[in-house]
From TrEMBL:
The protein's enzyme class: isomerase
InterPro entries: Glyas_Bleomycin-R_OHBP_Dase, MMCE/EMCE_epimerase, VOC_core
Protein name (database record): Methylmalonyl CoA epimerase
Domain VOC: 22-154
Keywords for the protein's UniProt record, in alphabetical order: Isomerase, Metal-binding
Amino acid sequence: MNLEDAGVPGLQKEGEVMDIQRLDHICIAVRNLDEARRTWEPLLGKDKPDDAYVDEPEKIRVARYWIGEVGFELMESTAPDGDVAKFIEKNGEGVMLISFNVGKTREAVKELLDKGYPFIPDKRGEIVRPFRNCEYAFVHPKKLNGVLVEMIDDKEKRDF
């Protein structure tokens, strides 16, 4: 018996599928990035991040590790008014967001807006934001069971 025969409503019809290509990365909000690295790196089998960066507009410092094709990020706020700091104040440390890699962020945003999904704009009111060689946008967690979801069209080639 398939799901439709079992009475499961709302199944995707052909042509209605979002262009999600893969899980891109998962972000863990941490109070202290250096301490979190000492905790996580032995578990991940790493002695340093595969990538590390500071994103001043987002007020974050990040250590990224590749687990197969999926990024695992530890994020620390660089300012008390940053989103990571606010998340930790409200929820404590833990999973802050899940990111999906899509064909084109702007097309995914348009499709989701048309379906009633709210997005979180930046300080300038922009929904789609630039980062390195790609663009990303955040779907508001109030629509997705409290989970902050990022849509990103990062196409950087990696050796997995």
